[in-house]
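Subject: Sanity check before I submit

Could someone independently write out the structure tokens for this chain? I want to compare against mine line by line before I put it in a report. The sequence has 112 residues.
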Amino acid sequence: MFIIDEKDREYRFGDSGPKYLMKGPRSNFAVVQFQAGQDFKAHYHNIMEENFFILEGEVDIIVDGVSHTLTAGQLIHIEPKEVHYVINNSNGPVKMISTLAPYQEVDKIDVD
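---
Independent answer below. Compare away.
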């Protein structure tokens, strides 16, 4: 058992990207934030499935070339090997939860 406070962790890119509250041993759990216009490179996972639950704002998540606009309260489930790209095309920040499972230390493959 453990407790982690979000304020004790930092986003990967200063004010954006993932902020991991837990990495392994069975899953990852992160708070993810993107400011207006920011994105995260297209990629996929060989083994891990990924879920995004939108807490605040609006975000576009492109999965295998199909764009999905998600808003607060919506969840998107992404299967292994599905290429996904995240971009905030809105005028304000977006905040969401990301979960990845089963945990793999390295399982992200970038796509051009």
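---
OP: Matches mine. For the report I'm noting this point. The mean pLDDT is 97.
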